[in-house]
Design goal:
Elements lengths: L1 E13 L8 H14 L3 E3 L2 E5 L5 E5 L4 E13 L13 H65 L1 E7 L5 E6 L1
Antiparallel strand pairs: 1-5, 2-3, 3-4, 4-5, 6-7
Length: 174
């Protein structure tokens, strides 16, 4: 029996965006950072497909990230059953053997589908750490942009300093 199967897995989580400016402006700043990372903006979402097929979608309004991966395979399994029977019960035996064979094939295919699902899930989990680091950087840069804009609204910026630990200091003359 040959069966084509497709399995998918995905996860969504929030991005830690501080509400420094209006939500629309925060979304624009984040979108700018994501576009610089190779995402394509489409309205209130930014999308990118990784070389390994993982689809990354950032909802700018809700500040969430969703990652999804799917995989397909053509599974081929065979089962061979035999039984001896009298001629008068041959039809019933054939029917029983056919049903048993189909049940065994379905069980074998289910095992292969579960293995494919585990592979997809493991690949997705491995990618999440890399994506999280990259997106945390984008959120951090968007936050710095928002803080700088907010400081400029308060007065004239005299000095900004970003240290190696990621701490931002903005000196403003009111």
């Amino acid at each position: 029996m040959v069966r084509t199967v497709h399995v998918e897995d995905g996860v969504a989580s929030p991005l830690e965006m501080l509400p420094i400016l209006a939500p629309e402006r925060m979304a624009d700043l984040l979108a700018d950072e994501l576009v610089a990372l190779g995402f394509e903006r489409d309205g209130s979402t930014c999308r990118r497909t990784e070389p390994d097929g993982i689809e990354v979608t950032v909802d700018l309004e809700r500040a969430t990230i969703a990652v999804k991966l799917g995989a397909g395979a053509q599974l081929d399994e065979t089962v061979e059953l035999s039984a001896q029977t009298a001629i008068e019960s041959q039809g019933a035996m054939e029917s029983r053997l056919r049903n048993d064979a189909l049940r065994q094939l379905d069980d074998q295919l289910d095992v292969q589908v579960a293995a494919l699902q585990r592979t997809v899930t493991a690949q997705l989990e491995a990618k999440l750490a890399d994506l999280q680091h990259e997106l945390d950087g984008a959120v951090g840069r968007a936050t710095i942009g928002a803080l700088t804009e907010k400081a400029a609204q308060l007065g004239r910026i005299e000095e900004t300093h970003l240290d190696d630990a990621g701490n931002l200091t903005i000196r403003v003359r009111l």
